[in-house]
Design brief:
Elements: E1 16-20, H1 28-43, E2 47-50, H2 56-67, E3 71-77, E4 90-94, H3 97-107, E5 110-113, H4 118-132, E6 140-143, H5 150-161, H6 169-172, E7 174-176, H7 179-187
Parallel strand pairs: 1-2, 1-5, 2-3, 3-4, 5-6, 6-7
Helix pairs in contact: 1-2, 1-7
Amino acid sequence: MVAKNSSPSAGRPARNICVFCSAAELGAVYTEPAREFAELIGGRGHSLIWGGSNVGLMRVIADGVRHAGGGLVGVSVEFLRDKARTDADEMIVTRDLAERKALLLQRADAIAVLAGGTGTLDEATDILELKKHGMHAKPVVFLNSAGFYDGLRLQMERMEAEGFLPRPLADLAGFATTPAEALEWVEG
C-alpha cells in the first residue's frame, strides 16, 4: 500500500514507515511519544507498516496514525492472528517471524524503532545487520523515549570505536529524542 497523500508542507512524497515496537501495555513515558509520533506519521500523509497487533504500544501507534488520517498496513504472524487489528487497510498474515520481518522491510520506505522487548530488539538488529551488509539503504531511527535506548546506543558506539562495524554508526541508524526528530530522520 502506498501512503494516501503527499506532505504538502514539506514537499516530500508520502512514505510507508515501518514501526517496530512493543505489544505490551506501557506507561505514559512511552505511550505519549508513540502517540505523538503516530499522529505526525498520519498527519504528514504517511502510512504505517507495523506488526499488525491491536494491543499495547502497537495499538497506540496504529490508533494515532489512523486518527491523523494515515493508512495502516499490518503484517501479522499466524500464531498472533487473534491479536490482529480488524480495521487495517491491509492485513497480511505470514507463516513465521522470519517471513514477517522480511515482508515488513520489503514494504517499508523507512524504519522507526520504539520501546520494546526482545522481539523489537530482534527486528531492529536484523534490519541493522541487513543494512550493514548493503541489503537495503532505508533510513532507520530509534525513538529514544526516556533514554530507553541509551544502553544500546552506547554499545553500538563501542562497536564502532573498536572496529566491529564496517560502516559508521550514523550510516546505519540514528537516535532521536523527540517524535519530531524521529520523523525528520525517516522522511530523509
